[in-house]
């Protein structure tokens, strides 16, 4: 099939690379280059980089609302039987949805109608699900409300992060898409209308979402550490500075060989304790609203992310402090 591809982040790039092995991509539409990093260097989106690596023509657009941009898209997509959309990052106007003969087909990283919106992978991890999946759907005016063509379930393994789960979903979704497209073109699939009464929604994640609330449970904070990796990460305040936490482990009181005294149980308080059956080496622990969080890595501004044992060599004074104040 001849396809126009629309996408922006790494998820879209992974789908594009696999799709181009099977189908003819007449062009790739993505968002403009954006400033990135501390130095705000203008950086192309991953989909643009993938397209250029494969020698595919690229069109970058800020919006597709104007008659001029839509006319440009119509010319750029000439010959495309369908538009394939994977994490494009903008709502398509009805005029664009009606352009291709076989419609606009979206690959969404959840089992719709669950987790409509911008951050389905993050929300699945925050909710502690044991599986997620991908939906191939027809696009319509609403956000992820269109009828479903096919779906596939993807297991969520213990320790899964946003990055690792997105990689798996892109892989599974691309394979499902490759199987679905010829069947859709041949009229072998009857689109299934979503049950909106079962719908749940996700929003755009802001940096502030990574600020730790120590009143929350250690289990939820640990899930956030994985859901928000690599961005925005989780962080707190210590000694007037932002302190980032890397990988974390959750312990309950039964796991501690030296349970903390009453003065070390307030959420955010830092202490050292041994763990049952692990020998004399103490573990850095932080009290939470429920349970204890053991960060394995810590990072101060301008410094590298360090294993906790290395961090303590330079910043032993963190022990006994209260984080987040």
Please specify the SSE layout and strand pairing.
Layout (H helix, E strand, L loop, with lengths): L1 E6 L2 H10 L4 E7 L3 E3 L4 E3 L2 H8 L4 E3 L6 H10 L5 E5 L7 H4 L6 E5 L7 E2 L2 H7 L4 E8 L9 E8 L6 H24 L15 E2 L15 H10 L6 E5 L2 E5 L2 E4 L18 E4 L9 E5 L4 E4 L1 E3 L6 E2 H7 L11
Parallel strand pairs: 1-2, 1-6, 2-5, 6-7, 8-11
Antiparallel strand pairs: 3-4, 7-9, 9-10, 12-13, 13-18, 14-17, 15-16, 16-17, 18-19
Helix pairs in contact: 1-2, 1-6, 5-7
| Regions with little confidence, pLDDT below 50 for 5+ residues | none
Report the average pLDDT across residues: 95
CATH homology-level superfamily of the largest domain: Formyl transferase, N-terminal domain
Instruction: Please name the CATH topology of the largest domain.
Output: Rossmann fold
- CATH class identity of the largest domain: Alpha Beta
**Domain tally:** 2
Number of helices: 8
* Spatial shape: elongated
Strand order of the largest sheet: 5-2-1-6-7-9-10
| Helix-strand pattern | EHEEEHEHEHEEHEEHEHEEEEEEEEH
Q: What descriptive keywords fit this protein?
A:
8 helices; 325 residues; 7-stranded mixed beta sheet; alpha/beta; Rossmann fold; Methionyl-tRNA Fmet Formyltransferase, Chain A, domain 2; 26% strand
Written account of the structure:
By secondary structure, this protein is an alpha/beta fold. It folds into two domains: 2-202, Formyl transferase, N-terminal domain (Rossmann fold, 3-Layer(aba) Sandwich), CATH 3.40.50; 207-318, Methionyl-tRNA Fmet Formyltransferase, Chain A, domain 2. The protein contains eight helices and 19 strands. The strands form five sheets. Strands 5-2-1-6-7-9-10 form a seven-stranded mixed β-sheet. A four-stranded antiparallel β-sheet has the order 12-13-18-19. The protein has a four-stranded antiparallel β-sheet with strand order 14-17-16-15. Strand 6, helix 4 and strand 7 form a beta-alpha-beta unit. Helix 1 (10-19) packs parallel to helix 2 (46-53) and helix 5 runs antiparallel to helix 7 (218-227). It is elongated. It starts with a strand and ends in an 11-residue tail after the last helix. The mean pLDDT is 95.
